[in-house]
Design a protein that fits this description.
The complex is a heterodimer of chains A (296) and B (271). Chain A is mainly α. Helix content of chain A is 74%, strand content 0%. The two termini of chain A are 21 Å apart. Classes of the chains: A mainly alpha (296), B mainly alpha (271).
Amino acid sequence: MRLLHSAPVNFIRVNSATSRPAHASRAVPLVLAGTLLGVPIAVGVGYLVAGTLGIVGNAAPGGMQRVLADGAVLRSALLSLWIATAGTAIALCGALLIALHFGDQARESRIARRIAALPLPVPTVAAAVAMLLLLSQGGWLSRIAMHLHLLAGPAEFPALIQDPWAIGVIVAVVWKELPFLLLVALSLQSLRGTALSDAARTLGATRLQVLRTVTLPLLLRGMSPSIIAVFVFVLGSLELPLVLGPSAPLALPMLIQERRQALDMASHGEAYVIALLATVLALGAAVAHEWLRDDA
Amino acid sequence: MAAGRRVNARPLRIGRGIMLVSLTMFAMAPLLMLIVTSLARGWFHPQVLPSTVDVSGWSELLTDTSRRTALLNSLVLGVATACIATVLALPLGRAAALSTRGVRRIVALLAFAAVALPPVALGIGLQLTVLTMGLGGSLRGVLLAHLVPALGYLTLVFLGVFTQWDARLEEAAATLGATGRERWTRVMLPLLRRPIADALALGFLVSWAQVALTLLVGGGAVRTLPLDVLAMLQSGQDQRAAVGALALTIPALVVLGAARVAARRTTAVIA
């Protein structure tokens, strides 16, 4: 099964490998990548390490101990992980549902795919503004509900903005990231074709069995780097929690901003430490992302 | 699977219809919300629709000095980021794709890290660097910061493009007597027109939508359209915020076209 899945990719690679010119060098790409990508990353991470150690930024020492003992930091980290996990999981389920229902060549399927892809290029700030106007207690949904006599007043509308469960943030994440995961799922489906699921059907598997044991595992395996990418983007995003998120606890990027802007030196030092922790999380995910890719 | 579905199509048709309607509402409602709000002045709860249509929010975008500056800053940053990042990422992606598997992995890892690092965390280090260079709070400093994630994205794009590239075309041109320059102008660039256009669009969008890096490195002195939108929202000016949000969205939709970005982002991540 694994072999069949990777067959087309290998085919492409064999072609390009045989046609690779003999002068292909290792030094040129490494020097270029080191200069253009490595230096800014090293500078970014380096300052955070130096700040954590109290070498730059005039921060008071002992930041690491304070941060690790600080319940607010832990609550922020948990909130951010909750937003990223719930948002990614719901977007993934929606993307799979649409990909499996509208993956064929029927006219309504093509329309559905086009509509679902619409939010993809919308800047995050714009998505955040739209969700605020739509979901707040004085927003459009609340107005429509009142118009339909479902509510007596705006206070009866559930708090979806700046609420402790960050529902508004999660809705915005799903709206923004579902199209991306959908397109990845669709491109995997079209690359793979239906040969495997047809074979399973011929061998007597029910439609549900095919879905559970063939289609979904293959899709999820192929989508895993993209799922990690979405998770990391959401974890580091400032815009959505800034507009839609709760103020206690703050999402991790918001907490970093708050500590950085605080007037006392101790808080400054903590900003470096928290940012470093967030960076380590993201770098870990980047390594996992590379590791999960079939072909680099 | 599709064939099997067609046979007993009736109940599934209805299910598909319901899904299509909910999908349309979910995808379109936020955009519709922005359009309606951008045309509404004094639209109070519980009115479902504004009583008058007011386009002053839109004309302000060009007449109000501070909004126009924000718009111009965003455009300049977006175009500059797109051009510089494309010019730098193309040779990098090509050199990496032509190299060994190990090198490709390292380059892809660095590129993804540039994209995935939390902008707030990356911005702290970049801010201090830009300050040291004497570019704090300047457009050039912000441009340098925007280039970091843009280079990451575009390196992944060109790595994908050139990994599936057929180098025999260049060799054939060389065999037929084309000089180095001719190979580029007559063979490579015409073939690369589409990926380059997509890379420019994606590079533009990365800068166009950027908030955290602008905020940190610009130190509040460089006002861009996304920052302007946030400021309007925080001061309760919903109409202006909606106009700004749409002004951010429309070029993104037009320049890229949802499907095309999609194709690029997809290859960027899975290629």
